[in-house]
């Protein structure tokens, strides 16, 4: 039985020092690649804090809202509004405390989110190697949808990727914009099947503007794979300092982010994906990158086995409930 429950609300200007405290020793001990400081600390704006506990176990959650514009390229890969909860669990049996926090958060969400709005989601990110609380999240309608995976640098790997018959890799140029947009669009349409990526009417416009800026760079960040002369594969990379937004999620000094890798249906099982992944890892090793991060959809029958077969493993798991507040009427419509 729970012995205590608390709920507090802080506004802009609050002291976020307490929220940005280091991760508990449990998750850090279970995964040495987790950062010492908390990368999920909310911004210094309106935050609601929930606390519950009993018998030496406790849970604490910090809830806040994240929103992007429809005109932002970020809107293509997430709901416009995400209600996020950063959860800390302590003790041997924190499940009951977490369940109470999720109940309180649900009550809070009914007052700030429209029921049945597909462009909202409730999101809880958890260290992948900390399973405590998973059953409670499932009971409250959440599903593990997205993973932030990590691949530590492989300094002992052979120089250069192995050659794949008929596959040629080259840096994309401005003249390749149409091809890059087509491959990127294929990736978005495929990932949309799993419920997180959102197909928007302005997707083509946003993708084109985003890729055009990348192709104008002096140092290439977009690569194409040609299979017997046909461009059928696409790779996009980020290097420091562009990766500052994701670097806090891993205990590494120099972090690379593999933004996307797409292989056209016509080139599946041809070695194009393997060649692109090996090329990315070679480039990152040459740049002195200590760890490479990427996001992938956990339910994808392509992404999950592919990336874990190339040295990646889960670091953070993102549990989603979309819409944030369920509506039976909306589900029937």
From TrEMBL:
Residue span, N-acetyltransferase domain: 167-332
PROSITE patterns (UniProt xref): GNAT (PS51186)
Keyword set includes Ribosomal protein: yes
InterPro entries: Acyl_CoA_acyltransferase, Bact_Acetyltransf, GNAT_dom
Keywords tagged on the record: Acyltransferase, Ribonucleoprotein, Ribosomal protein, Transferase
Molecular function terms, GO-annotated: acyltransferase activity, transferring groups other than amino-acyl groups
GO cellular component: ribosome
Listed PANTHER family: AMINOALKYLPHOSPHONATE N-ACETYLTRANSFERASE-RELATED-RELATED
Record's protein name: Ribosomal protein S18 acetylase RimI
Organism: Amycolatopsis sacchari
Source organism phylogeny: Bacteria, Bacillati, Actinomycetota, Actinomycetes, Pseudonocardiales
